[in-house]
Write a structure and sequence with these properties.
- Keywords: Signal.
- InterPro entries: ARB_07466-like_C, PGBD-like_sf.
- Residues 1-40 form the signal peptide.
- Residues 87-199 form the ARB-07466-like C-terminal domain.
- 20% of the residues lie in helices and 17% in strands.
- By secondary structure, it is α+β, with helices and mostly antiparallel strands.
- It has three domains: 11-229, no CATH class; 273-341, Muramoyl-pentapeptide Carboxypeptidase, domain 1, CATH 1.10.101; 352-450, Immunoglobulin-like (Sandwich).
- Helix 8 packs across helix 9 (293-301).
Length: 471
């Protein structure tokens, strides 16, 4: 199965296009994003990149992680299940693998989770399924460590090829200009992008000469594989995208069938650059500690700036959530994304608003809410209906909470209307009237019961003066 990114960019390039130290990446232009098919490797399918390069002196760093106890069963080679979620949460199996490497090879380190959007369009670092184990091909010890680990990982044990890779749930590896995929084992170590043409040290991170990248299956990332549990794990396809969000919701449990294909989230014609960036980030779980382009888009939406989540981001997001009737979690979670970039909300020119409450007493019903238009900060009209009978009011009452939640809006977008009512059950609905492009937006309905006699409205006589009439 080919590795692809959102937008069709080969996934093997995701580290190339994201490593900040590698400014030379941009010099390749289109040739980097659409490389010619790589020639078949000249080494045997099971050979490691070290077999392509110079031999490592024997006896150096030959230690390897411990083997699991002998078992009758073993996992199949992992399928390719691309990252489609971004929750920023380190998964338990990923954490254990990182600890296994750093404890086996003293003095080394490992990286795991990265911020959404900081490592290309797709990266298992986003959903907590990837480890970058730091060891350098440019040192004798570094290469020897890599050889020892990869030899152990891909060795045939008890007649089972790639035994420890299968028991750990390894999906693919990138090391020293090459990539190995469990889903393409007969291809062995394939050339990684255009790295063979860039032996200079400035490309070491992009071409994985200073670290081994290890991406795991979901069963491996969740620590359910037989290396840890001594029981063969069932295949897990992880969370699935929904049509209205770019990123899938956070992992919630095993999934035994592949996710259905879902297209890109549609963006309305004429949508602003901010709206497009919010749609691209929609579904990513952002919270204190998050960084990157998705955070920049959320900050801009909240009237802030910068790519880092701050205390101001949390405070303004809580106000934003409260104004939309959401739990004020201070986290850009799935409900908040849907209230921000859902299909109805993405009608960029259409109005927005809410019917906050409807209360009744023995005399009347009182409806309270807020509304504004997507194109202007001017006062808009709201149609409030009581059992189908419509009253139109202006949304110009003071609502400083709305101004706080929607930077750039004035504090006068509230509406309050009192309606006469009879005893019994009633339904009150509200619709904000669109101005200019877009369409009216229904704000929902509330059911309420009124006890007591009907309201009696008295209209005082209007004095009439003028010629021919007594004063």
């Amino acid at each position: 199965m080919p590795l692809t990114l959102r937008g069709g960019v080969p996934a093997v390039l995701r580290h190339l296009v994201s490593c900040a130290a590698l400014t030379a990446v941009t010099a390749l232009g289109g040739s980097l994003l659409a490389p010619a098919p790589a020639p078949a490797p000249t080494v045997a399918p099971t050979a490691t990149p070290a077999a392509v390069a110079a031999a490592v002196p024997a006896g150096l760093a030959t230690v390897a992680p411990p083997n699991p106890p002998a078992m009758s069963g073993i996992e199949p080679l992992a399928s390719y299940v691309a990252d489609d979620s971004c929750d920023g949460a380190l998964k338990p199996g990923t954490s254990r693998l990182a600890s296994l490497l750093t404890s086996t090879y003293a003095g080394t380190s490992a990286g795991t989770v990265r911020g959404c959007g900081t490592d290309g369009s797709i990266s298992e670092h986003y959903d907590g399924r990837a480890v970058d184990w730091m060891t350098s091909v440019r040192t004798t010890d570094g290469r020897a460590r890599a050889d020892a680990f990869l030899g152990w990982l891909l060795a045939t044990t008890n007649g089972q090829p790639y035994a420890n890779a299968r028991r750990l749930g390894v999906m693919y590896l990138i090391w020293d200009d090459h990539i190995w995929g469990a889903y393409r084992p007969s291809d062995g170590w394939r050339p990684y992008s255009s790295c063979a043409s860039h032996p200079e040290s400035g490309w070491d991170t992009a071409c994985h000469r200073d670290h081994i990248h290890i991406s795991l299956s979901w069963e491996g990332a969740m620590g359910r594989t037989s290396y840890w549990t001594h029981a063969v794990a069932a295949r897990d396809y992880g969370p699935c995208r929904t049509p209205d969000l770019t990123w899938a919701p956070p992992y919630a449990g095993p999934r035994t069938s592949p996710c259905p294909a879902v297209g890109a989230v549609p963006v309305p014609a004429g949508a602003s650059d901010l709206t497009r960036r919010l749609v691209a980030a929609s579904g990513a779980i952002l919270r204190p500690g998050s960084v990157g382009a998705p955070v920049a888009a959320v900050n801009e939406m909240l009237g802030l700036s910068g790519t880092t989540w701050t205390t101001s981001t949390t405070a303004r997001l809580q106000a934003y959530q409260g104004a939309r009737g959401l739990a004020a979690t201070g986290v850009m979670d799935v409900p908040t994304w849907r209230a921000t970039t859902g299909p109805a909300v993405l009608a960029a020119a259409s109005p927005d608003g809410r019917l906050d409450s409807v209360t009744g007493d023995r005399l009347s019903l009182r409806a309270v809410g807020w509304a504004f238009d997507g194109e202007t900060d001017a006062t808009v009209a709201v149609r409030v209906s009581l059992d189908g009978a419509v009253t139109t009011v202006a949304a110009n009452a003071a609502r400083p909470d709305v101004a706080a939640a929607f930077p750039g809006r004035s504090a006068y977008h509230g509406y309050v209307v009192t309606l006469p009512a009879t005893a019994g059950a009633h339904t009150v609905c509200a619709t904000v009237v669109n101005t200019g492009a877009g369409q009216d937006r229904a704000l929902g309905c509330r059911a309420v019961t009124v006890d007591g006699p009907p309201v009696r409205v008295r209209t005082p006589p209007t004095p009439v003066t003028g010629v021919g009439h007594p004063s």
